[in-house]
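Hi everyone, sorry if this is the wrong subforum. Our group has a chain we'd like a structural model of before ordering constructs, and none of us has done structure prediction before. Sequence below.
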Amino acid sequence: MSAHTRPTSRPPHPLAGLLLALSLGLAPAAQAQTGVEVEKPSVLRKLVPAAQLEQQATQEYRQLLQEAKAKGALAPADHPQVRRLRAIAARIIPHANRFNQDAGRWKWEVNLIGSKQVNAFCMPGGKIAFYTGLVEGLQLSDDEIAMVMGHEVAHALREHARERIAKSQMTQLGASLLGAMISDGRYTDAFRFGGNMLTLKFSRDDETEADVVGLDLAARAGYDPRAGISLWKKMEKANQGAPLTWLSSHPSGRNRIKEIEAQLPKVLPLYEQAGRPAP
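Answer:
Right subforum, don't worry. Here is the predicted structure as tokens:
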């Protein structure tokens, strides 16, 4: 080879990158765990405009906070439990886009209300509220709070409220059409947007899906999904005295624990990959 001759460059072998990754002790991307699987949302939800639902939810949320503040029940931003809740949310929310691309534009909020109610919720648009009766009354750990928060956030991400209202509208529409045919049409205004977010009840299927998606979210955020089992044991124990608001339309604790145990093989690897970030 003369001094003026350069060797011909060759493209890297397709397996070169994989061999390099293996030599460095890196796992191929294809082996990464994908988490839980969910079905496509019902097309019925399109009957209710998402923006309109989020606007109504925001109005109801504002009203709730104003009423709580007037009673001295709204915890301030520097309250230790508020800081704790918001820190947990800050780790869960970045994974929300996996289940709803619109979550990236939501104006998320997390607040704590002083009440004996064992309750929590996440309204459409990311408006989260916890009650002290749940956080302090049951002495929840961070992992257990993450299970509750993941569950409630999942309801919003999977648009369960939107779907429930749409189904209600379809029922009302049927009553309206029937009323128009057999009576004076007094039901003709039934097909309109409505529904109070605070009193909306989800189906058992929705609740189960929220449990599953919530486990995935919490695990990706670095919270131990096995805490879902201890959470529901606490819930069952607390529910022996009087029915809890949060459990009014939920599946039984035993059934939820069975579902959590069935999902653990899918979500524990996510938890192990995420690790526990420093507080």
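For your construct planning: Residues 151 and 210 are 5 Å apart (CA to CA). The chain has one domain: 45-274.
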